[in-house]
TrEMBL record:
<dbReference type="GO" id="GO:0005634">
    <property type="term" value="C:nucleus"/>
</dbReference>
<dbReference type="InterPro" id="IPR013078">
    <property type="entry name" value="His_Pase_superF_clade-1"/>
</dbReference>
<dbReference type="GO" id="GO:0043067">
    <property type="term" value="P:regulation of programmed cell death"/>
</dbReference>
<keyword id="KW-0072">Autophagy</keyword>
<feature type="binding site">
    <location>
        <position position="78"/>
    </location>
    <ligand>
        <name>substrate</name>
    </ligand>
</feature>
<feature type="binding site">
    <location>
        <begin position="106"/>
        <end position="109"/>
    </location>
    <ligand>
        <name>substrate</name>
    </ligand>
</feature>
<dbReference type="GO" id="GO:0045935">
    <property type="term" value="P:positive regulation of nucleobase-containing compound metabolic process"/>
</dbReference>
<keyword id="KW-0963">Cytoplasm</keyword>
<dbReference type="InterPro" id="IPR029033">
    <property type="entry name" value="His_PPase_superfam"/>
</dbReference>
<dbReference type="GO" id="GO:0005739">
    <property type="term" value="C:mitochondrion"/>
</dbReference>
<dbReference type="GO" id="GO:0005829">
    <property type="term" value="C:cytosol"/>
</dbReference>
<keyword id="KW-0053">Apoptosis</keyword>
<dbReference type="GO" id="GO:0006915">
    <property type="term" value="P:apoptotic process"/>
</dbReference>
<dbReference type="GO" id="GO:0043456">
    <property type="term" value="P:regulation of pentose-phosphate shunt"/>
</dbReference>
<comment type="subunit">
    <text>Interacts with HK2; the interaction increases hexokinase HK2 activity in a hypoxia- and HIF1A-dependent manner, resulting in the regulation of mitochondrial membrane potential, thus increasing NADPH production and decreasing intracellular ROS levels.</text>
</comment>
<dbReference type="InterPro" id="IPR051695">
    <property type="entry name" value="Phosphoglycerate_Mutase"/>
</dbReference>
<keyword id="KW-0539">Nucleus</keyword>
Amino acid sequence: MGFSRQEYWSGLPKGCQGPSLGLCVRSSGETRLNKEKIIQGQGIDEPLSETGFKQAAAAGIFLKDVKFTHVFSSDLTRAKQTVHGILEKSKFCKDMTVKYDSRLRERKYGAAEGRPLSELRAMAKAAGEECPAFTPPGGETLDQLKRRGKDFFEFLCQLILKEAGQNEQFSQEAPSSCLESSLAEIFPLGKNCASTLSSGSGAPGLAASVLVVSHGAYIRSLLDYFLTDLKCSFPATLSRSELTSVSPNTGMTVFILNFEKGGKGRPTAQCVCVNLQGHLAGVNKTP
């Protein structure tokens, strides 16, 4: 789900004073335990299934023309395999160094890890609570998960602002293979959209295009942070349930972040799409 192309591009700031960041967040591919509805969290480090590898490859083909400037991933095996599956299909980023960060790990489910999802729901019911608000013994609360996501996001913003400050030419350059131009192809607009943006609209090119591979519950928490803390603008067609659902395997969510000159204050955020999975057409079908 997302904006129409016209809604998205008309929402970009004209003559933005500070740098802009394109952030593409994807969840890891499917594992055997995903299919069996077993809670993995952080303690069960399951590799991708055959379907999971196909999902990663499909995501890579979908993003093959994007020239990412930075790539981050959870350090859990399923995320590592997903990000490598994506980069293997890239025209520009096959040899890019991936930065693994434990802050991108899935939510920790403590005593529920390795158990069926039905048992987690039963534990929540016995405690008089509901999922996902319920925290199993030894697990991570939603507030703790959100703070972890906020910590990574603030680190990422500071990194991009520092690099943008070292590159005074970022506002004069809009590479045809950056996330901005690729989005102009993914969300059909007029033929001259990308060139208009870079030359005639007064909108600068993106200072950075960042790929982040994480996990479903983590991404749901990140969406909550963008919605409640950053007051992010989301596509009007999205329902509340879509914003609060767990990201499907290799589902894609894209944000455009705009910073004030000098990097003061929080960035303004606009969400282009949430849990996009059109690239998976045919991949998840069982013969």
